């Protein structure tokens, strides 16, 4: 499983679908290119797996390296399964290299999966492949979802997390959201905005250091009801605690396909707001705004954020949280069954070969 140590894999597949062989040890750097994406690793570990399933991380290999890796799978008679999470890579402005990487691996896959019907249509149109649609799994423990009821809050806390300003993060989203929050506060609504970011952004040696962005954050932080918090990368537990401290989360993504962050919001009772990119709205049913170039359209952002604030103000009943947990449990079980059928089918075919 590439990558093997990821919550998506843990909940969407699990040992109910197959005996999983991770691509690396738990003590290895999970952000470096997977060692399993090399012909040498495949040959050295051939007796440890029957199917290779790739989710993401292959952008660390060149298109030529991926073509050689796929050829090695064919030589070893190992079926390849690909789940397409990203048709646009969030980490790059120029998508040409990533499209070449997809072109090396997607047409060669013995089975293709994706998360939304819209992405499946795009895969069919661009690559001529039919993809199984398997909804995104839950991203937090089931007990935490069951406990994610929320009383009607006295104040609505809106959050934007810039992380480390990866390529698809639109900086112009911050002052636009701050402006809408200011207007909501002026109308008497108890709304606050907190912007989180990783402290490495303030390090002049950091590759994405950007003085104008820091100046913008200083200006926005001077607004009434707005704060900026610098925090190191969250652990899973810290992320969940952060989200449970919000009522609304705005994703400042200028492009993308799907989002695990949206799933965590839904699981923990946070109301998400997203731009009209990729299949985020189809994936989550989030409140959606339009883009005007690289900045949000102010009118549609005001409409989406106002609707999200109104929804958050109603809270989330115990019944709603329990119902959602039950839905998650059923859809995750269905996902595990789909994966098991695909793996069994491919290994049966490979055995006949």
Structure, explained:
There is one protein chain. This protein starts with 6 loop residues before the first helix and ends with a helix. The chain contains 14 helices and twelve strands. The relative contact order is 0.13. Helix 4 packs parallel to helix 5 and helix 8 packs across helix 13. The chain is globular and about 65 Å long. The longest helix is centred in the last third of the chain and has 35 residues. The protein is α/β, with parallel strands linked by helices. The mean pLDDT is 92. The chain has two domains: 152 residues, Rossmann fold (3-Layer(aba) Sandwich); 164 residues, Rossmann fold, CATH 3.40.50.2000.
Question: Which properties best describe this structure?
Answer:
single chain, 353 residues, alpha/beta, Rossmann fold, 2 domains, 6-stranded parallel beta sheet, 4-stranded parallel beta sheet, Glycosyltransferase subfamily 4-like N-terminal domain-containing protein, glycosyltransferase, Glyco_trans_4-like_N, transferase, glycosyltransferase activity
